[in-house]
Amino acid sequence: MSLLGKTVILSKWLFTQRPTSLAIDITHRCNLKCLHCYFWREEHPGELPDSEMIALMKTFRKRGLRAAILYGGEPTLRPEVCRAAGEIFDACLIFTNGTNGFAEIRGAKWIVSLDGPERVNDEIRGIGVYRRAVLEIRRAKSPPLIHMTISRLNMGCVEDFVGCMAELPIEGIGFSFFTPAVGGADSGYALTLMERDRILTQLLSIRKKFGPIVGITPAMVRQLRSDGAFFSWNRKELCPVSTRVRCFNPAGEAKFCTYGDSADCSRCGCAAVAAYRGALCPIDFRTMLVILALMGMPGRRLITPFLVR
Ligand code: SF4
Ligand code: SF4
Questions:
Q1: Confidence class for position 178, pLDDT limits 50, 70, 90
Q2: In this structure, which of 54, 110, 113, 120 has its CB flanked by the most CB atoms within 10 Å?
Q3: Across the chain, what does the average pLDDT equal?
Q4: DSSP 3-state of 66
């Protein structure tokens, strides 16, 4: 990932309101059917073929977007598109369920979605998924990041999960809270704001125990807490996604948010927004370092002792 590209992204965040990132669901197909996932339950239009998907990415790179986040479905089902994204953008994050391994892709980082220790994860994601993903994590040439979506299904096992992950060759663990659709049948999976506040407090003590592999800072927690800054951004027009990120579905159609057009902003639990606002509103050195680490900042290990508080 080019240092110049990262510097430009940070400068745009600091000094402009211009978009910096492309978030794209590169496929609606997936080899899993997770309990809490909206993607496989919905009807989808067709997918852009590889050549058109890659052309779309190049167009947005020319328009100044230097970072990309690839989602699905399961992005590994489209390896050519993943490879191209790593070449095109200065920073590229690819979310995966981890069951298809982690191909070496220049300039890209893998983020593995797992939702708890083996029993809980597999109740949510399917039997055998945890073992398969852990096997692939152990085999990976570069340590991936882990992402846990905290919901009513797994809220009781966050610390146990971090303990399991801490034994693996990973770069860190991030956390989002399940964000339901407005009036959606999935609302029951979302925590109340009070429950969420409790877990956020717990996450900070987990970070003290396990160190900076736990990718949440006090400034990020503040963005998500109901007695913090949450009500100052949890609307479409105020959320930084509206200014910084261009989101697309697999057909190349624009959508408002990576969670979909019907996402319930009033209950948003997006880690990316918490990290962005945590780093900049006001400026917070530790959260900035979490973001720079996500972008592949060199020498991160030298500074990790300073990341915990
Ligand atoms: S792996 Fe991701 S896209 Fe696939 S079903 Fe699970 S949550 Fe949905
Ligand atoms: S759901 Fe969250 S990330 Fe998406 S637009 Fe709403 S507030 Fe922003």
A1: very high
A2: 110
A3: 92
A4: coil
Rg (CA), the chain: 18
Closest ligand 2 atom to residue 257 Cα is 4
CA angle 123, 194, 309 (to 5 degrees): 90
Q: How would you classify the pairing of strands 245-248 and 254-255?
A: antiparallel
Please give the model's pTM, rounded to 2 decimal places: 0.93
The Å distance, Cα 241 to ligand 2 centre, comes to 7
Rounded to the nearest whole angstrom, what is the distance from the C-alpha of residue 187 to the centroid of ligand 2?
A: 15
Task: Confirm or reject: Cβ of 179 under 6 Å from ligand 2.
Answer: yes
User: What is the arithmetic mean of pLDDT over 265-294?
Assistant: 92
CA 125 vs CA 97, 101, 138, 258: distances in Å: 9, 16, 19, 20
Cα–Cα distance for residue pair 165/120, rounded to 1 Å: 14
State both tokens at 136: 């692939």
DSSP state of 70: E
Distance separating alpha carbons of residues 258 and 253, to the nearest angstrom: 12
| 58 Cβ contact list (under 8 Å, min separation 6) | 88
Pick the atom of ligand 2 nearest to 240's CA: 8
Q: What proportions of the chain, in percent to the nearest 5, are helix, strand and coil? A: 45, 15, 40
CA of 268 to the centre of ligand 2 (A): 6
Distance from Cα 60 to the centre of ligand 2, integer Å? 21
CA–CA gap between residue 220 and residue 97 (Å, rounded): 24
* pLDDT given for residue 225 in this prediction: 98
Cα separation, 115 vs 86, whole angstroms: 26
| Alpha-carbon dihedral 95, 98, 104, 105, rounded to 10 degrees | -20
Residue ranges and CATH numbers for the domains of the chain are 3-297 (3.20.20.70)
Q: Measured in angstroms, how far is the CA atom of residue 71 from the centroid of ligand 1?
A: 9
Nearest atom of ligand 1 to the alpha carbon of 73: 3
Nearest to 108, CA basis, from 93, 88, 90: 93
> Which ligand 1 atom lies nearest to the CA of residue 36?
7
Ligand nearest the Cα atom of residue 35:
1
